Model the fold of this input.
Amino acid sequence: MLLISVCRVATYASLRADSLSTDECVIDTLSEVSVIAVGARKAVFRETDGALVLDARLLGENATIAGANDPISFLHTLPAVGTNGELNASLNVRGSNNGANTFLINGTRIVNPMHMFGIYSTFNSSFFSRYTFYPSRISAVRPNTAAAMFEALSPDSPAEKLSGEISVGVLESHGTFHLPLFNRKGLLSIGGRITYLSLLFPDILKLGNSYLKYGFGDCNLSYTHFLDNRSKISATFFLSDDNLETLVRHDGSKDGDCGWGNLSTNLRWSNSSTEIILGLSTFHNRFYIAEAGRELNLPSSLKEIYAEGIRHLGEFTVETDVVWRFTSGQYNVAVMKEDGSRSSNAVEWNFAGSWKHEFPFGLSINAGIRNTVYANGDYLRYFPMPRVDLGYRCGGFVQINFSAGRYMRFDHIVEESTTGMPVDYYINSSERESPEDTRTVELGVSGTIPGLWIEFSIEGYYKRLRHYGEFAGSILDMLNPSYNPLSDLMDGRGYSCGISVFFARQFGPLRGRIGYNLGKSRLKFDRYGDSYFPSSHDRLHDLSMAIIWNPLRFMTIGATFTHATGIPYTKVKYGYIMAENLICEYYPHNSSRLPSYNRLDASASITLNRHRITVSIYNILANRNVLFRYHSFYLSQGVVKRESVMKSVIPSLSYSFLF
Amino acid sequence: MASCEKDMVFHNDEYPPLVIEGWISEGESPIVMVSHALDLDGDSIDYSGFIEKWGRVSVFDGARQYLLSAHVDKRFFPSLIFTNNRIKGESGHTYRLMVETEHGNAESSAMLEANDATLELRSEIVKKNDSTFVIRAFATGLEEETCYKFYVRSVGDDPHYYPAFKATFLGKDFPTEGFLISKGQRIQLDSEGKDRFSHFFFNGDVVQVKLCRIPSSLYSFWRNYDNTIALGSNMLLTFAENCPGNIEGAYGYWQSEGTVVRVIKTSAFNE
Done:
């Protein structure tokens, strides 16, 4: 924030703008004034409707793995978003599962926004200008979601000249160009990214006896044509592909090939009061593994076409959209032919309205209702989703908010893996798999501490979760041609509650953020009895602290510390020998905890003219974080307890050319 | 709850539960192994009570009781087995197992039903690894809702039959193109670790394949067993479910087996 006091200033004198108090000032005529101030560098900005806006240019100042200025990695440092362990590509927001979220690029859905192992998301920050994240308080006129909404936005204002970035790093490289066309009436943006980890380090990825070869690529394209000062038409295109191969050293008894890909494209016309979007989103999985001569070949896909119209009428906004969605279901094509019995076509018709009003005495209201008529075969239902968001601004620096609402989504992810592997797939909601349904109440206060310029927010939340799906089977059962994994998809219910606290100082050469969440999320499934148990991503304490320092104008040093309660797991109580193998008997589901998770990352970058070099070190203290526990039996040693641990220190170096 | 289907509650001062592995095949004597589970929750593991040496094991054929006597048979692990060669499995008979120990009793019943299936075998070279083989089994006469299981034994290498890999199925799920049989993973009793284990057979192996008709109550047991062996140590695709046995008062199983046995010598020329 730039501080300016109106005061008596000697001609040609210069004073620090923040050194003057209002007591010293009288109104006078300014003949020539130089104002020098350090502006805020807000990597994250909170809007009055609860949205968090991330500045894509500033994400790189934060220390993350491989120095990637990844927005999803940044989100994990916010209190609403649960900390992820390594290899976990999911986003759990206030107790909800990953599949409950909605991800968009320029208004169009991205089905799976993560590349494998959770290191990178599909969002190339050199291409996008900003991101909008709604952990809650989502307006009725926005697309359906049962948890959070995240949208990546490419530049959409006229550009003066060619700009962009080319970056080369140890793990990945990317390039982006923003090119003005037609005398600045058009803006063409092109971005691409590729990894080559396995090319440079072929043996670096191991899992047990298997070697992994992994790579991904993604590309973005958008064109905006400015018809006049108020209206524009744009086209967006996104494509990504992940590929993973597994190879066993000895006897070739297991090999695998898997991956996934997104495609998203839309056409959009908008002016100051109206917006029309036509869009297409597709996602496909492939998962092949051969074990002991038997094959699992589990492709799946989701396709979605939609049309949306939004109209702003003063304080009112009305929206309607129609979505057609196809899901393939999952077959093992190695043992059975696809006969269409597991695929489904569903249609959603949504119509919504919202009303925003500011009352003179500081009270504001944003109330609305979203209505969905959903059809999947014989299953036809109407679902109203009312929402209200009340705000009260007091003292100019503080706002109190209360919100309540119902949120639903009409497709589920069947998570057959624990880490977002491409064996997870999507299904349409149906009579048997009811739409995921969340009812949320929140009360919070946010604002800025005067004088210190520290932004803060403290929010309490309570969510009821219904039709929360969890998979309790095994993909090996897909060797059986008649097995349908939906027979092991449990329908659960539960709740999550907690308090999220956030402080940020994004001003001056020393900046920082603290995000802390005290919360719990509990689920209940008939299969596990009548008691609640912790969800797989439940963490009582979740703390993240980030510091960014500019000791010199061209140098940025950053550090991020994360501490989180260990996630639940199902612990072994007894082991016994059966058919000459070790079999385990477990404590109740998710009744134990892994050790707490701790990690410190650091980064440093130097930017000179158009050249930037970034060095980052992930897990600089080599904290030993347990990812997984299991037991093995050896005749000479007996039963041996084992752990998969992430303790590596991962350095990374990248060079970027900015223009 | 130790499992969703049996109400076994853990108590810290409880003696580790009984574990029973037992079967009676058509025309064969019953074999029963009795041990105790190992408590893996502590800092160290106490193996002292692992083998149950003093149990009294009986098999009832109707009203007639047969006491099984303990023998050391190093073909098995654990090597203390209970058996009685005066009783042989007959189809149509229900066999009740009773185990009595100082720390608890266990009981189970299983009816031995005839296996009227026919079985033919063919060996095939493994894709991408032409020095190894799998066996393709063709079966007819399977009853749709009946549970079956394949066991295999490499003559000369394996001292007895072992469960084949992921080879428990209902009759209606038997694939028309044949069932691929390979070895199920197991502890290597003659070496350290799992690295020497191979699922496959080698050229010239003489392999006995046994198709068993087993009680349907054991379908979930073997299904979870197979998933545990394959995925229990897999971080990406974990499986942490109990194996719901059919013995009251113990973990494990008591299994009757209506059997069909065939033998094949693996060779590239069989294809």
About this structure: The two ends of chain B are 50 Å apart (CA to CA). The helical segments of chain B are 219-231. Chain B touches chain A through 73 residues (CB under 8 Å). Chain B has one helix and 16 strands.
